[in-house]
Amino acid sequence: MSVVSIRGAGKTFGSGHTAVRAVDNVSLEVDAGDIVLVMGPSGSGKTTLLSMIGTLMRPTEGQILIGGRDISRLSGRQLSELRLHEFGFVFQTFNLLSALTAEENVMLPLLTAGVPRGQARTDARLALEKLGLGRRLRSLPRDLSGGEKQRVAIARALANGPSLVLADEPTANLDSRTGREVTLLLCAIACRENRAVIIVSHDPRLRDAAKRVVTIDDGRVTAVEPGDHDAHCPMHPGVPAEQG
Ligand code: ADP
Ligand code: MG
Fold this sequence. Notes:
alpha/beta, Rossmann fold, 6-stranded mixed β-sheet, 4-stranded antiparallel β-sheet, 7 helices, globular, binds adenosine-5'-diphosphate, binds magnesium ion
């Protein structure tokens, strides 16, 4: 069974002559271990598509199934459970809480999901160590570089063992080298742990990290091509030095 199954999904904002067709008849299957880059220019519908998959926005047409369950049939409570337990979100702006350390930022969603504090701390440390941040547990966001902040955010997204990681322009606030490194690291860990990943970005350099590249334009899928993930992802990739 696919982790995500999108069947003819569409989203129209507004109505009449001001209606905007942001996503138009998109179908896509994403399996465990798959890493999909959705690429398209600004305004092509990437964030809208990702928001619908993440159950933050409802499609106006079509169906989205997560783990075989049609999300339009789930209650608000079931949807928030899904977001807490099955999804990991990564954002362009990192979205770390400035008063909390790296470790506490990663612990927060675990605590919200009901993980006991001691276990949450252990899980958070493990997740940060995988991202090469074992020496940054007590650092506040203001003392971290952009690349480190995004690695904390990725640790936070992965810590609860999500089946699906959703990343919206994760490199937009990073220099190109750091952005590429951080994305390759996310994809290497996700691949090793058999998680599904969907990254949306206008950055074509990220095709290195992906197993499939889906191009969208004006809300429509115009191409599906293989990415270069395998060339950059040995079975046991090392963690980069603490930099960037
Ligand atoms: P991308 O993430 O690829 O830049 P978006 O999904 O944000 O694209 O937007 C796709 C289209 O939908 C754009 O034309 C945008 O202006 C429009 N749009 C996005 N969100 C809304 C909204 N809440 N209300 C009206 N139009 C929207
Ligand atoms: Mg966007």
